[in-house]
Amino acid sequence: MKKVPVSMVVILMLAIGLGGMFQPVQSVYAQGPASTTSVVLSETEIDSLLYMREEEKLARDVYILLYEEYGAQIFLNISASESTHFNQIGVLLERYGLEDPGLDPGVYTNDYI
Questions:
Q1: DSSP character for 110?
Q2: Mean local confidence (pLDDT), 6-34
Q3: Residue-wise over 69-90: b if at least 16 C-beta within 10 A, else e?
Q4: How far apart are CA 6 and CA 26, in angstroms?
Q5: Spatial separation of the C-alpha atoms in residues 44 and 38, rounded to whole Å
Q6: Which of 12, 34, 98, 101 could form a disulfide with 109 if both were Cys (CB 3.0 to 4.6 A apart)?
Q7: pTM > 0.70
Q8: In the predicted model, what is the mean pLDDT of residues 37-56?
Q9: How many other C-beta atoms lie within 10 A of the C-beta of residue 93?
Q10: SS3 of 100, please?
Q11: In degrees, to the nearest 5, what angle opens at C-alpha 43 toward C-alphas 20 and 48?
């Protein structure tokens, strides 16, 4: 029986696991205005959106601080990605008429965060 190098197994596992990353994703910006939405969200969905908004805010803030502290470009790049996530959750909050907990800098309403 022929031995397969560990690196090949890792590459194969990553390729299988990351395959979904390359599927086209429609931005929430491209989904139409809020007035076209007639969906009522459950409390769990509302709580999840509010949590995600603050979690993305926290992640963005942390990477901005890391960039300011160390000046490494990677932290600036990641903070830009977190800002995109933060903004897209904001679009969803607006679409569903939810109060935005992420507007005040450095203030978090979720006790867990």
A1: -
A2: 49
A3: eeeeeebeebbeebbebbebbb
A4: 36
A5: 18
A6: 101
A7: no
A8: 92
A9: 20
A10: coil
A11: 35
Residue 15 confidence (pLDDT): 47
Taking every pair of C-alpha atoms in the chain, what is the biggest distance, in angstroms?
62
- The C-alpha atoms of residue 45 and residue 36 are separated, in whole angstroms, by 19
Residue 85: name the closest of 110, 46, 56, 49 by CA.
56
Q: Quick one: which of 106, 99, 86, 105 has its CA closest to 28?
A: 86
Name the residue with tokens 């960039």. Answer: 67
Length of the chain: 113
φ/ψ of 86, rounded to 5, equals: -55, -45
Show the tokens assigned to 108.
């978090």
47 CB-side CA count, 13 A: 6
> Model confidence at 37, in pLDDT bands (50, 70, 90)?
low
> How does DSSP classify residue 42?
P
